[in-house]
Amino acid sequence: MKFIRYSFIFILLLVMLFSLGRTLFFPTDINEYENRYAEKIKTPTLDSINNHIFQDSVESALADQIPYAQNAKHLYNNSTSAYLYSVLSPILCHTNGSYVPFNSLYLFDEEHLVFPPMNLEELTPSLDKKADSLNKTFKKHSDIEFFIYYIEKDTDIDFETEKKLGAREYLFDKIDLPKTNLGCYEINDYDTFRRHFYKTDHHWNNKGSYAAYADLLHFLSVLEAPLQPLDEVSIGYFSGAKAATVGATNLNEEFIAYKFDFPAMNVKIDGAPVVDYGQEDVFYTDGYFDALSYGGFYGADNGEVAISTGKSEKENILLIGDSFDNAVIKLLATHYNNTYAVDLRNYEHFNGQPFDFSAYIEKNEIDKVLIIGNIDYFVMDTFNLEN
């Protein structure tokens, strides 16, 4: 018995030492399960230790770096969600029009995973900071035409009462731009949300992104007609990011996409030439798609996507956004000479240097800047154009 006990303790110590060694010397870069950069231990300094920043980073890094931690989290979430869904199934058909708690999310209309509506009072300090930061940039670069396009989603409306959050109105009242340069993709009721957003993912679907694209052309004063879909195609079935977050992979849905005849484009991702942004052509050419997801199909959250159509008579536009713009980048690019899309969360990581807004717009001769995103974009300091 002592041998077994000591053997178990020895193996446990080896696992702990291996985990610590990997965390310190060979940390992984990506948390594949949660689709984000994995936490790493920050450099200890007197300030970081006094403020507990270093200690917190050790705890977060160990949670991400321990071997099989992501697999264990995936297994735990799947198990609890499957059990919870089996318990709720008999009553879900009687709860239409109501929020049903489901782990950290809610179920609405039986199978639609939704975030709860946010609280405006809690958001106002962050919105005030964002408005101040943006206004300073607008004043500094008065020769550039700026546009803001706010994307409403489930966090902007209470589907039970149809009461709106009001964050967009609050933000726009503080922005020093003409009202014509402030646009919004509105969600005023659950039926619109249901038709334009995925059930298991937080992004808009093909109908939602195409409606936004057509609206953006008018908003940006593009006189050309929208590119028309050739067909509506079923790519396959997938379980989106919301479902993955809570382990509800028993919930899946059909991934429908529009097929377009895009003009010839030269595409670079983070400075390197590529065949295409996203993998639409892979499916239409080869007839299959591996690891289907919103970002996999339309394009990932790269630091920089640069698309050139060679139409020098047209303008150059810069999109500063979050993952919602992935589905409209190529569509908008058909109407411009050069289209640049920058995700400030990832620019420095993939390009090896911080984003310098002033240098960037000068280097690329930018005529228009489109700031596009949902509420998360407008409350995160990471998305400030200039720090």
Structural topology:
Elements: H1 2-25, E1 30-31, E2 36-37, H2 46-50, H3 53-65, H4 69-92, E3 100-102, E4 105-108, E5 112-114, H5 120-140, E6 145-151, E7 157-158, E8 163-164, H6 167-173, E9 182-185, H7 190-196, H8 206-219, E10 231-238, H9 241-246, E11 253-259, E12 266-269, E13 272-274, H10 280-286, H11 294-298, E14 304-308, E15 316-321, H12 329-333, E16 338-342, H13 347-351, H14 357-363, E17 368-373, H15 375-379
Parallel strand pairs: 6-9, 6-17, 15-16, 15-17
Antiparallel strand pairs: 1-2, 3-4, 4-5, 7-8, 10-11, 12-13, 12-14, 14-16
Structural class label: alpha/beta
Sketch the major β-sheet: 8 strands, mixed
Nearest-integer average pLDDT? 84
Number of self-contained structural domains: 2
Beta-strand content: 15-25%
Distance between the termini: 61 Å
Shape: globular
The DSSP helix count reads: 15
Strand order of the largest sheet: 9-6-17-15-16-14-12-13
How many beta-strand segments? 17
| Helix proportion range | 40-55%
What low-confidence regions span 5 or more consecutive residues with pLDDT below 50?
30-36
From the alpha carbons, calculate the radius of gyration and give it in angstroms: 23 Å
